[in-house]
Design goal:
Length: 396
C-alpha cells in the first residue's frame, strides 16, 4: 500500500499524540491523574438529561433524528444569546454557530483565517490543543508573555507592530494552563491596543463561569464589538461528552466563511444532542448547576493547595486560582518539569509538564496540575507522592 501521510501531520512539532496520552493517563484506574482537564462526573446531570432525552423523542420524534441546518438548533442559539445579553454582550442567535465543542470552533477559525506563513498571536503559555490545531495550517506563531495580571501589554503592542497578525487567540478567564485571570485594567489596555491595531480577537471562555469568588472583568467581546469572535462550551458546565460548544461572531464576512467551512466539514453538529441539551437548559436552572460545580471545585482547589503547602518544598511556587480547573506550578532552578513528570509517573501519579503549552520553549520548569476530577483522598495521596518525588530529585 502506498500510504503517504500529509506533511501537516508529519511535522516533528505536531504534538497531537501528547493530548491523547494525557487523556489516556486520566482514564487509567491505576493512576492518580492530575494531568487532564476533565470535569468531575459527580457534577453531570444524569437524571435531568434522561428526562430531556425522553421528552425530545416523545415530542419531536424523527425530527430529532434527521439532518438539520449548519447554524445549529435555534432554541439553543437563543438560550446562548439570552445568556450573553445578561452579561452585557450583544450576540443575536443569528451571530452564533453551534459546534462540536469549542475545539471545532478553533479549527474553523484556523482554516478560515490562516494561510501558510501567516503570523498569529497566542499567549505564552497557551492552550495545548489550540496550538496543535493552529500548527496544522502552517502559521508563524508569535507568543506574548503572561504575568500575574494577564497578558503583557507592552510586549503585546510590540508584537502587533512587528508582525501585523491575522488574529490573536486569548483565554482571559482562568486561563489554560496557568489558571490566571486578566485584571480589568489589563483587559481595557489590551483592548485599546488591539483596537488601534485592528487585530481580530478570538476570545475563548470555557472556564469563565467557574469563578469561586469575586466579580469577573469585561470580556473582549464587550470591549471590542465585532472585532472579537467569542467561543464557549457546555463541556465545563453541563457535560463534556455531549461535545457541544459555539462560536459567536458579529462580523458578517467572517461569520459566513466560518459557517461555510463547518458545512463542508460535518454539515452540522449532532442535532439530537443539541435538542436534548436545549430541553435540559430550558427545564432546569443552569445557574444552580454551575453553583454546584463551583462549590465542588473550590473545595478541591483549596484541598490541593493545602496539600501543596504541606508536602511541596518551599522552593516550588504555584498559582492560587480564583476559579477554573488548574494550578500552575513552577519547579526550582535546575529541575525540569518533564523529568518530574516521568519520575512521578513511575510512582503512579500523572501531571502535565509545561513544555507543550509553549510555542518554542522546551525543558521548562512549569507544570499544569488539575484538581477538578480527583477525590480528596487522591489529592492527598497524589500530592504527597509528587512532593516527595520533587524533594528526592532536589536532593540528588
Amino acid at each position: 500500500m502506498k500510504l503517504r501521510i500529509s506533511e501537516r501531520m508529519s511535522k516533528p512539532d505536531f504534538q497531537g499524540d501528547f493530548t491523547a496520552a494525557i487523556l489516556k493517563a486520566a482514564a487509567s484506574p491505576d493512576v492518580i491523574s492530575f494531568a487532564g482537564g476533565l470535569p468531575n462526573p459527580d457534577s453531570f446531570p444524569v437524571k435531568e438529561m434522561e428526562a430531556a432525552v425522553t421528552k425530545v423523542l416523545e415530542r419531536d420524534g424523527v425530527r430529532a433524528l434527521q439532518y438539520s441546518n449548519t447554524e445549529g438548533y435555534l432554541p439553543l442559539r437563543k438560550f446562548i444569546s439570552d445568556r450573553y445579553k445578561k452579561q452585557g454582550i450583544d450576540f443575536a442567535p443569528e451571530n452564533i454557530i453551534i459546534t462540536n465543542g469549542s475545539q471545532q470552533a478553533l479549527d474553523m477559525v484556523a482554516a478560515t483565517l490562516i494561510d501558510p506563513g501567516d503570523p498569529i498571536v497566542v499567549e505564552k503559555p497557551s492552550y495545548l490543543a489550540a496550538l496543535q490545531t493552529f500548527h496544522l495550517y502552517g502559521p508563524k506563531v508569535c507568543s506574548v508573555s503572561l504575568n500575574e495580571d494577564g497578558i503583557d501589554c507592552d510586549e503585546l503592542e510590540k508584537v502587533l507592530a512587528e508582525n501585523d497578525p491575522k488574529f490573536i487567540y486569548v483565554i482571559p478567564n482562568f486561563q489554560n494552563p496557568t489558571g490566571l485571570t486578566y485584571t480589568q485594567a489589563v483587559r481595557e489596555r489590551a483592548a485599546a491596543i488591539l483596537k488601534a491595531a485592528g487585530t481580530p480577537v478570538i476570545e475563548d471562555n470555557p472556564y469563565g463561569e467557574l469563578r469561586f469568588h469575586g466579580e469577573g472583568g469585561s470580556s473582549f467581546a464587550e470591549l471590542l464589538g465585532e472585532q472579537c469572535a467569542a467561543m464557549g462550551t457546555f463541556s465545563k458546565i453541563v457535560a463534556p461528552g455531549m461535545r457541544i460548544g459555539w462560536i459567536a461572531c458579529k462580523q458578517p464576512e467572517l461569520y459566513a466563511k466560518l459557517l461555510a467551512f463547518k458545512s463542508t466539514m460535518d454539515l452540522h453538529t449532532n442535532i439530537f444532542g443539541q435538542m436534548v441539551l436545549a430541553e435540559y437548559l430550558l427545564d432546569n436552572d443552569l445557574d444552580e448547576q454551575i453553583e454546584k460545580i463551583k462549590v465542588m471545585y473550590r473545595e478541591k482547589a483549596e484541598k490541593m493547595m493545602d496539600c501543596m503547602a504541606k508536602d511541596f518544598p518551599e522552593s516550588v511556587s504555584y498559582t492560587k486560582p480564583e476559579g477554573g480547573m488548574f494550578i500552575w506550578a513552577t519547579m526550582p532552578e535546575g529541575l525540569k518539569a518533564v523529568d518530574v513528570m516521568q519520575a512521578a509517573a513511575a510512582k503512579g501519579v500523572a501531571v502535565c509538564p509545561g513544555d507543550p503549552f509553549y510555542e518554542e520553549e522546551r525543558g521548562v520548569r512549569t507544570m499544569r496540575i488539575n484538581y477538578s476530577n480527583s477525590s480528596d483522598e487522591a489529592i492527598e495521596k497524589g500530592i504527597k507522592i509528587l512532593g516527595d518525588t520533587i524533594k528526592e530529585m532536589l536532593a540528588k
